[in-house]
Amino acid sequence: MTPITEVEGRRVALSNLEKVLYPATGFTKAELVHYYATSADVLLPHLRDRAVSFLRYPDGPEGQRFFTKNVPPGTPEWVTTAEVPRSQGPARMVVVQDLPSLVWAANLVTEFHTHQWLVQAPDEADRLVFDLDPGAPAHIVHCCEVALWLCERLARDGITAHPKTAGSKGLHVLAAVRGGSPDRASEYAKALAVEAERAMPRLVVHRMTRSLRPGKVFVDWSQNAARKTTATPYTLRARRTPLVSAPVTWEEVADCRTPAQLEFQAQDMAPRLRSLGDLMAGLLDPEAAAPLP
Hints:
There is one protein chain. By secondary structure, the protein is of the alpha+beta class. It has 2 domains: about 5-120 and about 230-245 and about 265-275, Alpha-Beta Complex (DNA primase, PRIM domain), CATH 3.90.920.10; about 125-225 and about 285-290, Alpha-Beta Plaits, CATH 3.30.70.3300. The protein is built from 7 helices and 16 strands. Strands 5, 6, 7, 8, 9 and 15 form a 6-stranded antiparallel sheet that branches. Strands 10, 11, 12, 13, 14 and 16 form a 6-stranded mixed sheet that branches. The chain has a two-stranded antiparallel sheet with strand order 1-2. Helix 1 (about 30-40) packs antiparallel against helix 3 (about 100-105). The longest helix has 18 residues, at about 180-200. The chain is globular. The mean pLDDT is about 95.
């Protein structure tokens, strides 16, 4: 029988809690649900009012993985959903607004991915994102060099940048913005990616072409498009170990000398949060949002 737990007055079914999802570390589904529940104070504000794409991996990262964008069958009626625009017509997606919805979604074994706009205003970009993806033999240390350049360049336009690990092999640089559409945000991000390539031609590439990327950092500006989603701050990732897409300080980025320095697993996050708080809190402050140039 599937156990039922009560979360803030909602009944949530939890299944197969003893299943080992990450064999390399023995990390179980119960630990995954616990991680999300205990990270809710910092995770939920980054999920709230944003349509969610789930990357599901019910048998662990080495099993089948698939994206769920539409509302999954069996979704409880108390989970918030919203109609969002799509190129092929509107679709209905989940919006994780509260702890019961977060625990329900965690039971599906998910990464959380969100758009750069709120469901109330899909035509207005409120976040800017650069996904720095290294092509081997480049790695995250090289991404740090590019991230520092982007931080300084964005600052010249009055935009405050916030870094986080991708939770895989690269870095994400995010910023709170206002006054532009997703198309405008994409145009601006592309222009900065091109500028970065010109400034660091041996290190940066702005085009997605695979043959151009070995040994370089691909500055992916395309995730600003209205239809695209990016891994949410604090989400677990479907990797060999329970890595987190973890916010980091600019000091940590500048001091990074080996990839291991910027690898954070689920068990690392509680002490980081106690000492650092939410390093991405600036993304949530409307007063901190800079106008898109």
